[in-house]
Known about the structure:
Blueprint: E1 2-6, H1 15-27, E2 32-37, H2 39-42, E3 54-58, H3 69-75, H4 80-89, E4 95-98, H5 102-113, E5 123-124, E6 127-128, E7 136-139, H6 149-167, E8 173-177, H7 188-198, E9 203-208, E10 220-222, H8 225-250, H9 254-274, H10 276-279, E11 281-285, E12 290-294, H11 300-315, H12 318-327
Parallel strand pairs: 1-2, 1-4, 2-3, 4-12, 7-10, 8-9, 8-10
Antiparallel strand pairs: 5-11, 6-7, 11-12
Amino acid sequence: MRIAIDAMGGDHAPELIVQGALQAAAEWPDTELLLVGNASAIEPLLAGGIPSNVKLHHAEDVIAGDEEPVKAVRRKKDSSMVVAGTLVKEKQADAMLSAGNTGALMATGLLVVGRMSGIERPALAPMLPTQDDMGVLALDLGANMDAKPEHLLQYAIMGSVYRAKVHGLSQPRVGLLNVGTEAKKGSELTKAAFELLEQAPVNFIGNVEARDVLSRNCDVLVCDGFSGNILLKSMEGAAGMIFSSLKDAFGHSLLTKAAAAIMLPRLRHLKKKMDYKEHGGAPLLGLNGLVVKCHGSSDALAVKNAVGKARIALQGELISSISAEINGK
């Protein structure tokens, strides 16, 4: 399999993106990685030698994080992100990943890679951490701010296929994010979506509340991008506050420092569970190819793990499976 990596996208590009690609190349020698970006910036980072399964694909331009997404994608045809998307479209790569501008990546997916037949709105689908380490696949968490009930139905189907193909769950439980568990609660959007999901070919368990998500009361969480992004940012903020407060508490005295030393292994496990780097990236589901969005501040570990997740999705034939389920083939 062949995976294109936008080497110029992200806060730490190209250095840490290239490092992560090299780590992935060493871990999975059966996977060819295409580093897409400006050769003059990337080549010095490969001075120690290029593995046989890593290739450099030159792209002159870069889409910055503050650029207007659609305009940037249309104007910068030779940017690393657009070139990587073109490689997927032309079947020269099986997947692409980028830590760059999220909006631009969404535009690249729609305008370059192309939307899957039967899908109106692709969805950003990251994994949320849970107490049992199994995680919850949540979609949409920011690709589309507005949604129709039919979009949430498609999210549920795509999420179910993803968890079956990538995580091996035979009957993933689908929950609809709402302000209460009662069927008649919520906005007009969630009420209409509830009715559609009851008739859908998924294991729909009804409405779920945000406070219960981290205890994995469902395997697939469905929501509109506006609500989902607020949920995600709230969780990130809460996690940051908790770890900051723990650090202050354990550094208060010699006694608390001793307690910290005893608790250190469990605290490290907790931090690892909440760390986005461990999850790699989030797929944009609903496109004609596999497109993975990495966190903007991704380091080498995050890039390596994103490659690993992309490999599993490709091995499970995720894209063709979603298409078959959506289009009834």
